[in-house]
Amino acid sequence: MNRIALLTSGGDAPGMNPCIRAVVHAAAEKNIEIIAFKRGFMGLLDNDCALLEIKDTSGIIDHGGTILLSSRCEEFKYDEAQKEAVKNLIANKCDGLIIIGGDGSLRGAAAIAGRGVTVIGIPCSIDNDIFGSDMSLGTDTALNNIIDVIDKIKDTASSHERTFIIEVMGRGSGYLALISAITTGAEAAIIPEVTFDLEGIAARIKERYKRHKTSNIIVVAEGASTAYQVSRNLSKIAGIISKITVLGHLQRGGSPTAFDRLLGSRLGFAAVYELIDGNSNCMMGLVKGDMTATPLQIVLERRKGFDDRLINLAKILGS
Ligand code: F6P
Question: 170 in ligand 1 pocket by Cβ < 6 Å?
């Protein structure tokens, strides 16, 4: 293995930069070159690439985002685009490819592996919805961003005895909503994995006000509903007036936590070593503390299970 291609794809997540840095260091130690493609699969199609050396990754470990830029590339679903990508990888003498990204990016990884390219994926998404890794890169930082905001909102909420509806990211996954609710002492989490009972939540809020509790926080995953919808319905059902905060993309920014810096570094090294060992068409992930390779087919077929004990914990702690 003389040269490995690298790209970051899909929604950026804090931890991409530490991971890029680790890939470059791991490869340099084995005298392997890293060639980085810009803007994810777009760069692979446009042949927009350059060698990436240790000096280029100096000082990035504490930076959010990705120095390689990222994009969501719909075009890559099609044959023409995939063929073009393979052509460019061959033209650049790449012996392998590392893709850092979420579900859609790992689908791209599997597609290109199916065309004979040696590929390793790295799970990176704030949603923590990728099978084959207990935690995805970026999730921990996003969670810390969320709880930082909710803690602050609780100060003003309790001063005015208000109810707040906080909308967090997670199109198909309630992980961020559930864990942030548990770790901020929120009253309820509304997540796509569980049918929610707004009347029950409304009754609980009213009962809490009777007990002179000073604030109520409800965290909503964007995949389950919107903060506006929940607020409107609470008012309609029970006359409860609430304030709304939609966290949006600020959840994805900021300096990666120690957890994400370490996870990104471990995954980056593991991906390079996996390629050197001759493996392909798999994703490196964190499983029970260890770096583990899972075939991409399994990663994409299986749905990451939701731990019912966490849902129960949130229910009991929020009551
Ligand atoms: O996939 C990660 C994620 O942040 C989701 O939680 C969110 O729904 C989506 O990306 C937002 O995508 P975009 O940045 O393209 O608006």
Answer: yes
